[in-house]
Amino acid sequence: MMRGGGNREMRRMMDKMGLDMNELSNVQEVIIKTDKKEIIITKPAVTEMKAKDNSIFTVTADSYEERELEVPIYSEEDIQLVSQQAGVDEEKAKNALEEAKGDLARAILLLTTG
Hints:
Layout: H1 6-16, E1 20-24, E2 29-33, E3 37-42, E4 45-50, E5 55-60, E6 65-68, H2 76-86, H3 90-99, H4 104-112
Antiparallel strand pairs: 1-4, 2-3, 3-6, 4-5
Helix pairs in contact: 2-3, 2-4, 3-4
């Protein structure tokens, strides 16, 4: 159990394990993105622990904001399929899929008719 001076003991232990810990100053914002949402953390306290081959970041904040992202209702495979079937580039296939709300057959028809 760590008593007074615990922070110093923690630093010694981390040094023995080959970890270097630094507080990052003046961090304005941290954004964590998943496939369905973003978590925006403003004015966080960020600490980096460096090991030989990687870093571990600890983010501490009083509050954060979550935003739901619009998730496309089609995949990269869908875009490639529509592109191949309609004989168009992937950008046109993607636009057609958006217009067809993910309906593959409708997207192909949009591109191949009129």
